[in-house]
Structures are given as C-alpha cells and as structure tokens.
Give the backbone structure.
Amino acid sequence: MLNIIKSSLNANMRGISLISNNIANSNTTAFKKSYSNFSDIYSKNISDNPMGFSGMGVINDTPRKQMFQGPLKQTDGALDLAVSGLGFLTLASTNNTENRFYTRDGSLGLSSNGEVVNQQGLNLLAHPVEANATYNPAILEKVIIPPNITDNLGKKRILTNVNVSSSGVLKAIYGLDEEVVIAKIPLTSFENIESLQSRGNNLFKPTTKSGAPIVGIALEKNMGEIIPGFLEGSNVEITDELVKMLKYQQAYSGNSRLLQTEIDITKRLIES
C-alpha cells in the first residue's frame, strides 16, 4: 500500500512540476506546453483466474507536448518570422549543417559576417537561389546576406533592409531600391509532430515515432504561411494552468493524508 501511495505522490509532483514550467514559460516565444502522462501498474495473480489483477500504483510516462499554434504577436522586426499553420523552420549547427534542429521560434538576426542566426547562434537553412532567381529544392544551406555588394557600375551598396514573402522568398535591399533574391526559406513537417524530442530553447529533433523530416514550401501541400514581422507566442493559457495546478495539489494533499494514515496504522500494528 505504501508503494502505491508513494507512486501517486510522485505522479502528482511530476504534474505540478510540468504545470509550473508551463506557467514560467507563458511569455516565451513559440513555447509549447506539456502535460503529465500516466500509466497504471498491475500485478497479475499466478493463477489462471482472468480476474486475478490488482492495482500496484502509477508510473510517469513521457510528458505529452501540446503542439498547437500560439497567438501571433507583431514585432515589425525584419527577420522576425512566424509560421501560421503547419511547419517548422530548419536550423543547423554552425560547423555542421547536417546537425539540424527544428523550431517555431523565428527570432532571427544577422551575425557580423551576414549569417542569419537564431538567439543561440544556430544558422537558418534555406534553398539557395541561382542567378536566374530560381531556387534549388535539393539543397539546404546556410542563409548568408552580404553586408554590402558592388553594383554593375562598380559602386558599393550597403544593406538597408530585408524582406521575406509569405512563401519564404528572402530578398535583401541594398541602397535605396536594389533588390537581390538571397534564398527560399522552406518549412519542414513530420507525420507525428507530438513525438518530436524537445532539446530546450524551443528546439526539436526528430525521433522514430515522429517520422523523417518532410521539407516543403510555404503555402504549398498543406504547409503553413511565413509571416514576417511577427512572432508566435506561447500556447499556454494561464487560467487553464492554474485550474490544473489546483487539481494536482488537491490530489497530492489527499495522498499525503492517506500516507500518514497508513503509517499510523502500521505503527499500531508493530507496537501491539
């Protein structure tokens, strides 16, 4: 009995911990809330009696990540990108573009050498654009926006602005009006996005359950839309989280009293 009560206390404590983390990240860009997932533990009687099962408590399974979209917030940042609908941006380690991460957090900026990076220094990957402004869908490489260029007349033009279309076309503006197409930003999806592995900082890695990455273009084949100048907010609703927190606390308190009662009964049996 003590083990059963202990397992319930652990399960409720785990639930409280996850709810607390959700509340703490309620203002984190593109944060996805998680909830506890529990499984029953049963003990089977040695006999062939089909009713010979008894409950042995509960165990914590892997938390369930809620991947639905959060509200969009306007920032007017040139490289702030929100995804409305299905899809993730693809990021990679600076020294290894095959070490890829996936995120809904489009808080991007420029490094000193013109690389488009997130707040952790990971590079945004996109399809390169060739001379005729067509993109190569077979390649994903770092997005680099040169700080300046030399035009046809030999004059140096300085980067003045960056534009991203809803379909992911990234253009750099040099001087007053010279546009250069830099890259085509794709979106990536998975068969089961809830099974992606969280790596912190709103980064995810695929697993065998999530399936392999499916790279596509925004606004095509059920992919979402890229919205520049916006960021996706957290999908945490504070009121809902507080209600769930109260339920876990009440359950924990009830099990604590039950544990104390069981301890008192055991002491009496020992002393008698």
User: Anything to note?
Assistant: The chain has a mean pLDDT of 89. DSSP finds two helices and 22 strands in the chain. The two ends are 20 Å apart (CA to CA). Residues 72-232 form one domain.
